[in-house]
Design brief:
Distance between the termini: 74 Å
Radius of gyration: 22 Å
Oligomer: single chain
Structural class: mainly alpha
CATH superfamily: Rhodopsin 7-helix transmembrane proteins
CATH architecture: Up-down Bundle
Helix content: over 70%
CATH topology: Rhopdopsin 7-helix transmembrane proteins
Order of helices and strands: EHHEHHHEEHEHHHHH
Number of domains: 1
CATH class: Mainly Alpha
Length: about 325
């Protein structure tokens, strides 16, 4: 592309789903409802964890931060997507595009790290139950979460600076729901090998590293569960990990499909559907997963509802 004459791109135009204008309003209402449920569900989970002393444990401490991050990274994407649907496309400056890419990468990276930390928490709880309290102290919990935020910031900063030192020219239309790396790379011109290597190297420190931590943690957990003599004991122990495993499968399954595959020959429509899953659907489902599959959360919800009913009586 370097030898061709292209005009330099200073802003972009998001056009996801605009090839079917009749879908605009129905999709707008659908994604708006998903977004509102995401905000209400995750905010409710944070309030519930804060209010109920039964949930003042390391696992729910990490879950509270997961809910906060889910709210943030969904809020980075969905309002912009709603504007695209309502106006059948939306212009976005390169600076705003870079800011959106940074914030999405920042919060998505933290999400990955926290899910990995939660896997380690389950490993300690199942494999070293007598040492759980001494290992997962309040200081250790805050240290792990702070590390996730710092690592997320560093990764997002380096990847954003590297990505936006690339030259963009020619077509400025992004057939995607937000400023993400795969559609942006399609608009680059000139030499980009060095930047792409840096982006890939830092990406390895997020998704594959977190997946490795999760896989190793659950390998030890499975070995420990298999050593429990009774079937009831095995089922009870595994049930404490079921919600986390479901959330991990949803989040990393869509990310792996999107980023760790050969993109040649893939349709932009397929990519858009997958991106909706991990930016809109997964943050909405996480509170439901932990509410429906977790006894402590269900009890806390029922307790909160009974208190609200009691306070509402004359």
């Amino acid at each position: 592309m370097a030898g061709r004459n292209h005009s330099v791109v200073t802003d972009f135009f998001l056009i996801a789903f605009t090839e079917h204008p009749e879908w605009g309003l129905p999709l707008f209402l659908l994604f708006l409802s998903f977004y509102l449920v995401t905000l209400l569900g995750n905010a409710g989970m944070i309030i519930l964890i804060h209010k109920d002393r039964q949930l003042h444990t390391p696992m729910y401490f990490f879950l509270g931060h997961l809910s906060l991050v889910d709210m943030c990274y969904s809020s980075v994407i969905v309002p912009q997507m709603l504007a695209v649907l309502l106006d059948h496309g939306a212009a976005i400056s390169q600076a705003r595009c870079a800011a959106q890419f940074f914030l999405f990468t920042f919060f998505a990276s933290i999400d990955c790290y926290i899910l990995a930390i939660m896997a380690y928490d389950r490993y300690v709880a199942v494999c070293q139950p007598l040492l759980y309290v001494t290992i997962m102290t309040e200081k250790a919990r805050w240290g792990l979460v702070a590390g996730a935020y710092v690592a997320g910031f560093v990764s997002a900063f380096v990847r954003t600076v590297t990505a936006f030192t690339l030259s963009f020219c020619g077509n400025n239309e992004i057939d995607f729901i937000f400023c993400d790396l795969p559609p942006l790379l399609k608009l680059t011109c000139g030499e980009s090998f060095t930047q792409e290597v840096v982006i890939i190297v830092f990406a390895i420190f997020v998704m594959p590293a977190c997946i490795l931590v999760i896989l190793v943690s659950y390998l030890f957990i499975i070995v420990a569960i298999m050593q429990i003599p009774s079937a009831g004991g095995r089922a009870k122990t595994f049930s404490t990990c079921a919600s986390h495993l479901t959330a991990v499968s949803l989040f990393f399954g869509t990310l792996i499909f999107m980023y760790l595959r050969d993109n040649s020959g893939q349709s932009s429509g397929e990519d858009r559907v997958v991106s909706v899953l991990y930016t809109v659907v997964t943050p909405m489902l996480n509170p439901l997963i932990y509410s429906l599959r977790n006894k402590e959360v269900k009890e806390a919800v029922l307790k909160a509802l009974s208190r609200s009913k009691a306070s509402g009586r004359p």
